[in-house]
Design brief:
mainly alpha, 6 helices, globular
């Protein structure tokens, strides 16, 4: 059962066809903008290759073993060891340098690229 205020709002929207049409247009525009924004910021293959070139030399068996044993700073606070390891490698090689300026990537995009490069511990 809807509250009176919600019912009144719905009746008002249904009675005004222009409000309903404008609402649908705004919703469609937001969906389109959202898709464009997501597509525009995926990490490119060239950037993934550049990042891989930086990370591979430091992603050694010795380093992996130290992380498995918890021999790194603040190991006791780690919730996800693989995420921590990926991002520590990224920062160790100054990973942002692989992208150049104005790349527009967020941490989710970068983490997806890192997962494709760094195998889980």
């Amino acid at each position: 059962m809807l509250s009176r205020n919600v019912e009144r709002g719905l009746v008002g929207q249904l009675a005004d066809p222009t409000a309903k049409a404008q609402s649908a247009i705004r919703l469609r525009e937001n969906r389109i903008k959202g898709r464009e924004r997501v597509c525009a910021v995926k990490v490119t293959e060239q950037h993934v290759a550049a990042l891989k070139e930086l990370i591979e030399p430091v992603d050694t068996d010795d380093v992996r073993e130290k992380y498995r044993k918890g021999e790194f700073p603040r190991a006791d606070a780690v919730e996800d060891l693989d995420v921590r390891y990926r991002w520590d490698l990224f920062h160790a090689v100054k990973g942002y340098s692989a992208f150049g300026d104005d790349h527009g990537y967020n941490s989710d995009h970068i983490d997806t690229a890192l997962r494709s490069i760094v195998t889980p511990l």
